[in-house]
Amino acid sequence: ELPAPPCPPRSPSLSPSCELAQIDRAQSMRLAALLVGMLAARTRALHLVHMSRRPGSRLLGPAASLRAGMPGASAGCASAAARREAPALSSSEGISGLRVLNTLTGQLEPFVPIDPDRVKWYTCGPTVYDAAHLGHARNYMGFDIVRRVLCDYFGLAVMFVMNITDIDDKIILRTHRNHLEAMAALVAAAAAEAAEAAGAAALREAVEAAEAALAAPKPTLLELVGAQTALRDAAAAAGMASPPAVCDVQTAFVKLTLEQEASFFEDMAALNVRPPDAVTRVTDYVPEIVSYIETIARNGYCYEANGSVYFDTAAFTSSEGKVYGKLVDASALADKELLAEGEGALSASSAEADKRHPSDFALWKASKPGEPAWPSPWGEGRPGWHIECSAMMSDLLGGEVDINAGGIDLKFPHHENQMAQVEAHYDCCKACNYFWHSGHLSIDGLKMSKSLKNFITIREALETYSARQLRFLFLLQKYHQPMEYSQNSMAAAADLERRFGAFEAALAARLREADTAADAAPQEVLHRWGDQERRLNDALVDKRAAVHAALLDCIDTPSAVKRLEQLIRAANSYMGEVPQPQRGATLLHAVARYYRRVMGAFGVETALDAAGAAGSADSATPLQLTEAVSSFRDTVRSIAIEAKRSGGEGAGLADEVLRVCDALRDESLPALGVRIEDRPSGVAQFAIDEPQRVLAEAARRREAAAQAEAAKAARAADQAAREAAEAARASVPPSEMFSPAHDGLFGRESSYGALDAEGIPLEDATGEPLSKSQRKKLVKLAQKQAKLVEAAGRR
Description:
Elements: H1 25-39, H2 56-60, H3 63-66, E1 99-102, E2 107-110, E3 119-123, H4 134-153, E4 158-164, H5 169-194, H6 200-215, H7 221-237, H8 249-270, E5 278-281, H9 286-298, E6 302-305, E7 308-311, H10 313-318, H11 330-333, H12 336-343, H13 348-354, E8 361-366, E9 381-383, H14 385-397, E10 401-407, H15 411-426, E11 432-438, E12 441-443, E13 446-447, H16 458-464, H17 467-475, E14 483-484, H18 487-520, H19 531-552, H20 557-577, H21 585-601, H22 622-646, H23 651-668, E15 674-677, E16 685-688, H24 691-730, H25 772-794
Helix pairs in contact: 1-22, 4-21, 5-6, 5-7, 5-8, 6-7, 9-14, 9-15, 12-13, 14-15, 17-18, 18-20, 18-21, 19-20, 22-23
């Protein structure tokens, strides 16, 4: 392993794992009140505690809490010998047969960690200036699945480090834009109050100029600061008591980034993305970054120009064994658009003039007016984009890591430059063994991104879909392949998630029935396997091997999910063929354990997860409380059904109890996120879910029931109308049935002409004589009518 960098260690901030929240005594008391209300059969307000949010959003909370276990940036650097490596999390063995796509080589390769007891993974985190969107979810949730499979399925000990980019051109521009918007609103209000007073016209003119700058597609920093200055000067000239000041970017950008960082981690918690083992923030690392650049300079791989420092790609590639362009082909190295994007909107033009070679890139940027600045040997400035990851990754993980991950758009120039910087710092030829890149998320054929303004924020998506449904969407795609977000793809994911959820609820209910039956009559439990048990066991063995093979093959979750779906079908078939709960319980428990293990490794919470979870000494889990309510309701409902069947004085009370049971199922519990479905066995199937989702399902069921009732009423009305028409026709003598007065009753569109003495038509409506065959048919109708009249008379 390469030597450790000459910077003091930084203890990683370890985030606790997400577990089901416990329920406090006050919540349990509400449950007790609910049960008492049901006993009275008059319950109007029912309180059941719904499964709490995973504590990730609370544990992460504001950005500041992430730093609680992380000391501030060191002002100096110690010797390499004095530096201690960050501690390993646990011990594990390597995984035989696991192959992964390494975008460094473009090949599927065996995954061989540097140290099987500590897999070192660095992932590029967000640039925190705006709300996270589904493109971010695709990256972070996709890699969350991969990370969980490595840790929870294969048993590897992974040290997962993620950075927060809080110094960046986009952040600076957004900070000034937000400040200008606030200034313009303040001055506009002052202009409205001033009306025709002196200086009011200048205020309005300054506001209009600010609004024009804000309306521009990509206002420059100079334009934003200029509009702020004009507003300040106009406000001062108009005599405003407290003229708004121009943005103090050094403090204002920190407020923006802290807010957006906290928002990002709240979104990740809502998506059930496991927190990193350590989080690094650029503003905490500026001294280390300066020191890192100084080492690169001593090694001869960078140069200073006008207060900025640039990486010298020519010097780097001329050094023996070093290659610039490992991740991309030669054409990308000359892509001016990508190179400019790598430098940032505020720096591309000055960098182009200062650089010796077009592919050189900034390590340190001399700050211009309106930009934040930190001291350095080259003057006031700020870190370049790429150097931050190299310095922070090296600080916690050393000079060589197993995995460097991020979105595919980071492949070049960011990851290429990041790798070159580490190799230049350590003067080595290898900084990372595996690069993993997540595929783009597209919407309507275009990459979802803030710059294209075609993005859907994570919070907007969660208003329509649950986090579990979104996770199924990403499970159905290989993490490294591009994917499309559409109504069709989400509908498919939501339908699959629903079917998996239905299986979980059915299996959980069957296992509860089996446990109840075993407790009541242990002598009736059937352990001997028949043909059905052998078939289910064969399916379990086969699908378990198939899932394992899929996960070994570059963590192929779509194939793994498909095999799980086949196991679900086999288990559902078994439960349908073998309805006795006393039979096959141990085998179904084995299916449940395996299913729970794999879904847990995918980060999917299931209705089976909490089955064995116990509450604390003085509280119960949400599932236990829900099971208590459901079981009590089953008992009350079965007694009421039996009382209704028996008749007698208790029938009226039984109807009321059944009505209350239905109201509990359809109204009270859905609002608390509890779904209950009655079954012929008398043991209801229940599950805990998001309240909005359960309420929406209940609303759809009510609507479907109302539609079914309306259709039933319509059919009854049609039937009544047909019977009334038949009765009316049966009252008409055959001699009168062809008269114009009865055309509507017999469904004729036109009247016949002349009739004979027996009432049989001789002519059609136009007066044309009817043929013999036509009159013959009419005579038969008259004879049939005579029989109907006779039959009606007998009734």
